[in-house]
Amino acid sequence: MLELMADLQWRIGGCFYLEAEILRSAGPPFETAFLRDIQGGELLSRLARCESKLLRDFSRGRRTIQLAAKNRKMAEARMAATEARMAASLAIRKPCTSVIQ
Per-domain residue ranges for the chain? Predict the structure, then answer.
């Protein structure tokens, strides 16, 4: 999961670079790039959709990791409670003095 999130973070960074390159290639006035994007190229809008998908995937991965950590802590707490109950029940029992046992 961490490998996937590292890849997503790298791709999100690439989106910022691509956006800068699209705007730089448009020339000095930003309005020209904006008008060209609306009229047909739609590079910036496609890039924005791709970036939002990557951000959603990254957020989903972060929530998955947080949930796994929470579940691990709860499982450790349950195991500790079970061990404590077992130790307490063994301490209450009296040793058997029967020869048959």
Answer: 2-92
